[in-house]
Design brief:
With 71 residues, the chain is of the alpha/beta class. It contains 2 helices and 3 strands. It has one domain. Helices cover 38% and strands 24% of the residues. The protein has a 3-stranded parallel β-sheet with strand order 1-2-3, with helices on one face. The radius of gyration is 12 Å and the shape is elongated. The chain starts with a strand and ends with a strand.
């Protein structure tokens, strides 16, 4: 059986902190993390803010392809 955390966010203050979350998940037997980015937290974010937030998720997917699923 594979445990999946289906709701986790890219760390706002430091997107590179994804690595710490991945390592913690692995230590605790979690097989995959479904990440999204809250971006700038604006109620109606600009197109640029959405593109940047999606880029953060894509970076995490590329860095940890076996563990990170993007939303």
């Amino acid at each position: 059986m594979r445990i999946i955390d289906a709701h986790i966010h890219i760390p706002r203050e430091d997107p590179s902190g994804v690595g710490s979350l991945v390592r913690a998940a692995e230590r605790n037997g979690i097989g995959a993390l479904c990440f999204s980015s809250l971006g700038t937290w604006e109620y109606e974010p600009s197109l640029e803010a959405c593109i940047r937030a999606n880029g953060e998720v894509k970076w995490a997917m590329d860095k940890f392809p076996e563990m990170v699923v993007g939303l």
